[in-house]
Amino acid sequence: MPKVIGAVDINIERCKGCDLCVAACPADVLLLQPKEVNDRGYHFAYTANPDKCIGCAACALVCPDACITVYRKKID
Amino acid sequence: MSYEDIKKPENIVYQRPALLNGNHMHYCPGCSHGVVHKLIAEIVEEMGLQDKTIGIAPVGCAVFAYNYVDIDWIEAAHGRAPAVATAVKRLNPDRMVFTYQGDGDLAAIGTGETIHAANRGENIAIIFINNGIYGMTGGQMSPTTLEGMKTSTSPYGRRIDLNGYPLPITNLLVGLDGTCYVTRQSVHTAAAVRKTKAAIKQAFKNAMEGRGTSVVEVVSTCNSGWKMTPVQANDWMVEHMFKKYPIGDLKNTVNPAPAAHAKGVETHPKQ
Questions:
Q1: Signal sequence span per UniProt (chain B) (predicted)?
Q2: Statement: residue B225 has pLDDT above 90
Q3: What domains are defined for chain A?
Q4: 3-state secondary structure of B97
């Protein structure tokens, strides 16, 4: 049974911290930075649990600022 | 396996569409406009229409759409996008012409232009962002504001006796012979985004093939105007907006029943 693992890259300078990706993620991978902010003053999203990512791209689809790149790889 | 092994170009399943340029969008965090802009960029790229697409921008929050999607744009006077699109499409019949309008533009000041362009069956696609509020000017009541919904000009909620009923203008367009495809979608979940993408793609195809006017209403949120967080606004939209504006295809004369066809395929088991 091939296992699928994923990874996401977030462009933190483009992120506006809207929280939609965090709500959309089915695997609880993403969270907003509680204290740190980007140059524009937004609490950007980061991968809090990168091991759980399944590469489903739900976060990237709902992102209004198109700042998420999703990777997925099958491991036999 | 390390993450550097996964983060390789051949493993990319989703990335920022190339037609979205580098400008930061001026929209509030969590605004549905960003998602629909992204979908338009993806679809135009996939259909290879970058040199053939002319977008007509409205007055409203999306007035700066030309700043973000790298195609040709014309900025129309308030509500007049379908009229401008009519002229552009008639003079350039080989181009894909679409309008991108909000509810204050399409359903209020531009009601006449919208209905007559659809009634003439102009070969354009109309993308209608319906969030029930005038977002750009500070959250005033719009024709599509729900009954009881609080806005800055209806602080105690919209009253039917004073302000009339919410206007489901997409339903009006269904009855016109000029429209070939009328649908209502949303972009609050990944599945909904995929469906909206298919709907806009169908609308753009219809415009290129000259089948008549296609209307894609996207029921959206305006979390700043609604005074909520983006996630709360999505929940509120599902709970309240979908009652008045239910999601789904309202009219499709091009592919009359794609669902029935798909069902038919499933009922024949593989030999």
A1: none
A2: yes
A3: 3-75 (3.30.70.20)
A4: strand
Query: Nearest CB to B7: which of A23, A58, A71?
Result: A71
Residue B164, classified by CB atoms within 10 Å of its CB into exposed (0-12), middle (13-18) or buried (19+), is exposed
Q: At what angle do helices B32-47 and B190-209 cross, to 10 degrees?
A: 50
Say if the Cβ atoms of A70 and B13 lie within 8 Å: yes
For position B270, what pLDDT does the model report? 43
Alpha-carbon span B192 to B189, nearest angstrom: 5
Domains of chain B: 17-267 (3.40.50.970)
Identify the closest residue of chain B to A51 by CA–CA distance.
Answer: B3
* C-beta separation of A2 from A74 below 8 A: yes
**Dihedral over Cα of B111, B113, B119, B125: its sign:** negative
Strand pairing category for B248-252 and A3-10: unpaired
Annotate B21-76 with DSSP letters as a single string: -SPPP-SPTT-HHHHHHHHHHHHHHHHT-TTTEEEEE-SSGGGGGGGTB-SEEEEP
Q: Do B188 and A7 touch (CB under 8 A)?
A: no
Q: Is this complex scored with an ipTM above 0.90?
A: yes
Q: Which one-letter DSSP state was computed for residue B104?
A: H
Residue carrying the six token digits 């969270």: A31
- Has residue B106 got a pLDDT over 60? yes
Nearest residue to B186 (alpha-carbon basis) of B138, B151, B234, B122: B234
